[in-house]
Amino acid sequence: MGVRSEDFFRLVDGLGEVKRAESGNYSSFSVRGKKFGYYWPRTRTVGLKQTLSEQLALVAERPDVFEEQFTAGGFGWVVVYLEKIELDELEELVFEAWRLTAPEDLLSQAQDPAYPHP
Fold this sequence. Notes:
The structure is a single chain. The chain is α+β, with helices and mostly antiparallel strands. It has helices at 5-13, 52-61, 87-99, 104-107, and strands spanning 18-22, 27-31, 34-40, 45-51, 66-72, 75-81. It is 31% helix and 32% strand. A hairpin with a 2-residue loop joins strand 5 and strand 6 (75-81). The longest helix has 13 residues, at 87-99.
């Protein structure tokens, strides 16, 4: 179990129009200027935008894998411990974070990871 940092970056890079910005202690990911994710190399954790109900459910069900980060604008952000999550679950969470942020024209071109790839 566990996801390598490189695999997380590959997931993010596979989404439409993602921009990565480097800061002193973390990287942030945005689509058309709106953030949907963060990566902290020191702790090998990521922060992902989710719905409030999904944030609460993830943290309640598996507090060893997820923790509440913050809420903003009607969304709940979760911290994900990469060493404690499977790649397919992380792929769905990353896609959902991007989907909650991306504009409609990008969404119509996206392939949901919950469905088999052709």
